[in-house]
Amino acid sequence: MTRTISFTLNGEKVAAEIKPHHNLVELLQRDFNLMGARESCGQGLCGCCTVLVNGAAVSGCLYLAAFVDGAEVTTVESLADPSTHNLNPVQEAFIEAGAFQCGYCTPGFVLMTTQLLDAHPDPDEDQIRHYLSGNLCRCGAYPEIVNAVKIAARKRKAGAPA
Amino acid sequence: MATNTMQDAPVGAQVGRSLPRLEARDKVTGRAEYTHTMRLPGMLHAKIFRSTVAHGRIRSIDTSAAKNVPGVHRVVTSEDVRKVIPAPYYGPAFHDQPILAIDKVHYVGEPVAVVLAADPHVAEEAAQLIVAEYEELPAIFDEVEAADNKTLVHEELKPAGTFADLKHLKGRKGTNIALDFKLRRGDVDKAFAEAAHVFEHTFRTQKVLHLALEPFASIADWNERGVTIYSASQGPSFVRTEIARLLGWPENRVRIKVPYLGGGFGSKLYIKMEALATALSMIARRPVKVALTMEEQFYTITRHPSTFRIKTGVDKSGRITARKCEVYWNGGAYADVGPRVTQKSGFTASGPYDIDNVWVDSYALYTNLPPAGALRGFGIPQLVWGYESHTDMIARALKLDPLEFRRKNLLREGRPHATGQVVQDAKLEAVLDRVAERLNWGKPLERGNGAVRRGRGVAFAIKAVISPTTSVANITIAADGSTTLYCGTVDMGQGSDTAMAQIVGEVLDIPAQSVRIVPRDTDVTPYDMGTLGSRSLFHMGHAVRLAAQDARDKIKAMARDVGEPEGSNIPLPELFKKKYGMQAGNIVGTGTYKPDYVPPDPATGLTPNVTPFWMCAASGAEVEVDTETGHVRIARLITVVDCGRPLNPKIVETQISGAALMQLGFTMFEKMHIDAGQVTNASLADYKIPGMLDVPRVMENETVDAQQSNGPFGAKGVGETATFCVSPAIANAIEDACGVRLTSLPLNAEAVFRALRAKANTPLGDEE
After folding, report:
1. Which of B91, B206, B456, B617 shows a CA-CA span of 20 to 30 A to B521?
2. ipTM above 0.95, yes or no
């Protein structure tokens, strides 16, 4: 019951053998050693498994691997500049704001923040809170995360990855 | 970019600055390693089949259908476990927990059998085909009912004797009481008889979950020479000792490796999945991974539900003269560290007050519920919930200002605490005053009109850190002068790696970010009692400081050896070259710290030295209560703590803020619903934790100016402190707003609405 799928993963053409019940997190971890998207709640409620598929955030624990056939998949591992390895403005902002503790949920927040700022380059506090309300952080770094989003917005506006 | 500031940070003054976490880059790039996502070559996955009854004899376990699923490696029951580990019972305080249920099950969700397969989906499918039959036995769920011993959870108690302070425990029969801690000071009966006013109330807390986002995970790789366990553990040294005991091996054949933890909060303490993973690896002779789902965390370890009866005598002048505390801790089916929670929190059950006559009875009880253990505060948040609600109720009944009543009775520096220890370096007055100032307590509050009413409340608290405990640290300096620290404190998000590096940097006068912290590995990182109870910065901080001082002394000795003049600051690479003729050699520094401690008298609980430091906190809340719906909006949440000198102010602030938010969840909505022992909301869909929208619009966090005189660089622990006072501060604010008093957590809209209706003499019907 396996089938082969082809897709673009962080800018590279790849292929993988999958079973119909495999989800995207399993595919990324097992076949590509990408551990940044992690399963936590297993129900698409915590955001730890966030992956961008064709530019839109999905819950990798619910998203079937079969669905990424032909798609463009972006994970947290690709956000740093491929040549300079400099962090992107969102990642830098998370460090500056101290916007994490254990770090398990952080890739999900970083990806959602990236999508938020793509849609709303200059979000207000309400927009930030509502946009990120589907991501959970048990360490409770929310105030710092809101601050990080604001810093990231400023950095992106300034246009330079500082 | 941010990481540049790390590289350019100056030498000197390493402690006291907000250095970003050393592992920050790994965490924002998704590269930080966690056990739950680790794999070993040839590894099998384990899926657990769990009990569906709360108390019962196992009549049969039919594994035939599971065995026949293609891809199943094997199905394991306790019969198989006992062939490799003859006495498979583990636990920190009692050796009461079987690796897989033996003869009986003691709670719904207890592991009964395991399926092993290379494909986790196959293991999961097969586990669902196992059928067990039970002869059901009477079960007991309530902690107060359990104390009458009519229904017994265990026929015989099996204390472990691990902890020096629990040595007096002896095996008992015919009881559910695993430990009863007593504290007796003065004469409470006489004081109550003489008191002008006596108040008595009962407070309850619900069962809540740590809910670390990285669920429990352990991988064991066993062979005849030794076993290596990769584990999401807060206490690798304890795991090593316990696995060695189970296997009858010396400790040096057991290796525990711990990467970063995706949260712990007390859940990943002592021994959890490690014993099962080890037994399975012995049976399969392959590496075996036990990684739980979120749902399974609800069947593994929780916080203690509690019932707290508290009685206080007050004289005419408003002085508290006596306090009697009776606390029942619902420990579930296995003791875990419950007896220690019972004793250690019992020390401060009477609160941050100067009271001449104190009586405390604190009982650890077995029930047929999932086990309870330590959760960010070791019982203190449950006690503060009770005594600070109670204290507020007294003040209101006596028409005294709740702040002034507290100020009049608070425990001042130099006065003996209920245990007998003279209080030192405890800024109780300062934390309370700062919260009051921030709340503008002296000025009237705009109370609103119409349906939405506003109110405010305060609470403050004290905690004795767990004692006595030991930490050991080693430091290696290479011939190029670079420095490596080996310590067993687990960085589960609290930022300990960064703080320890700052201490090394301070002593050796090198940039903290140049210090390499070796990931936890019991083959190389020395003993530490565990990352728990806000003890690490103080205990391990001292050990690290001593190790660094030892290394510094050895550098000086080496300089003397090679004929350098006194006070020479020859660069280290040159010093090593002078000594060894080339880039060769090491300097190894070591440090061990264990504070003084006098065990409490078992009859009175009194001791002149119960703790090396006191943790002090105060919280203030401003709330808006919608009296038509019972909905409570927290407009402001203020937390002020005494943590001595903050060694990394930014990390300290995130600890305060995060702890307060976690406790906000336990206060306002988190609750494990249980029906006949079955948890009915075991998922994030049905068990809500705080999210972005639950954060109060105004959160204020502060540390008071303080120095812990016996602490490393004036510091003490802070991981738990901000949890203590959140619940009573909010309940006190709710009463202030709308005149209803809640005595059970959580303070959700239904509870508030029921109380409002009851007050209006139009009560709602029963919940069930």
Report:
1. B91
2. yes
